[in-house]
Amino acid sequence: MLWERKFRPGDSAESCKALVEAWRDPELKVFVLRASEPSIPVRDTYESMFRWLGSPRAFAEDVRAGDRDHQRTGEIWMEVRYDPKFPDAYRHSANAQPLHTDGSYIPDYSNSTLLACVANAGDGGETTFLDLSDLVAIMEREEPDLLRRLRTVTVPHARSGDRRESRILEGEGADARVYWNYYCVDREADANARSLAEEFHSYLGSSPGVTDRTLPIKLGPGDGVLWKDDELLHGRNSFNATRTSERFIWKCAFDVGVFS
Q1: What is the pLDDT of residues 22-47, one digit of tens each?
Q2: Which residues pair with residue 227 across a beta bridge?
Q3: Helices (H), the chain
Q4: 3-class SS at 27?
Q5: How far, in Å, CA of 200 to CA of 116, rounded?
Q6: The pLDDT of residue 89
Q7: With contact defined as beta carbons under 8 Å apart, do 186 and 69 qualify?
Q8: What is the pLDDT of the chain when averaged over all its residues?
Q9: What distance in Å separates the CA atoms of residue 89 and residue 82, rounded to the nearest whole number?
Q10: Which residue did the predictor score with more confidence, 4 or 66?
Q11: Rounded-to-integer distance, Cα 120 and Cα 105, Å
């Protein structure tokens, strides 16, 4: 599932082109770029790499812009930054973030998300990943009836003016895709969809198989990670922080290998 490579900020074309080539491998889902010089200007560095990586999308949100239905800013980058002023926003809290997909509620979401790390807390804060093929195999053993319902019940997701209606699991085998975020399930969803969402949320948080197969990746300053958003679930481990911005990551939706 994992591809990883070190890059030098002033000579990153080769690493970026290698990532785009590796993206075509269906077995690879998570792509990590490790900075050889951690004190780089993170946003400027990654923006300079876009010419070889692909195209960003303007799906950024900001908790300061309004409530959950009105947070779209029209910008490319958004902050994932520890700030105790916003304890109920995952982008700004130190809490563990449950497994989800970023494109659950956006019908035309990009093929990837990019995280570029400015700083990370010393204890915890890993980004976590679970390959969809592993999830399906686990559920075939542990919860086959729940797996069947994930493939048959339509669950609407909605946020910031976007809405997607689909099954949580679409397709099978190499064509399988996942669209899931417990906190973005449409508040107007019917009882059947809501019940399924509650059960799946509980399952992901309690399954021994899910815990065993979830991969934690710790980003350091200057590091970046991209992943195939609808082919896996991702989340975050909790972390200890006492200062604002002690964990600070820039995030954007990104189309790997798509050049405008």
Answers
A1: 999 999 999 999 999 888 899 999 99
A2: 30, 113
A3: 13-23, 42-53, 132-142, 144-150, 191-206, 208-213
A4: coil
A5: 30
A6: 85
A7: no
A8: 95
A9: 10
A10: 4
A11: 28
* Cα–Cα distance measured from residue 140 to residue 224, given in angstroms and rounded to the nearest whole number: 33
Average pLDDT in the 95-106 region?
97
- Here the tokens at position 207 are 């399954």
What is the C-alpha to C-alpha distance for residues 76 and 246, in angstroms, rounded to an integer? 22
Has residue 113 got a pLDDT over 80?
yes
From 14, 9, 236, select the one nearest 125 (Cα to Cα). Answer: 236
Return the SS3 of 87: coil
Q: By the 8 A CB rule, do 182 and 202 touch?
A: no
Output the six-digit token pair for 68.
């959950």
pLDDT at 68 over 80: no
Residue with tokens 């799946």: 200
Beta-bridge partner residues of 171: none
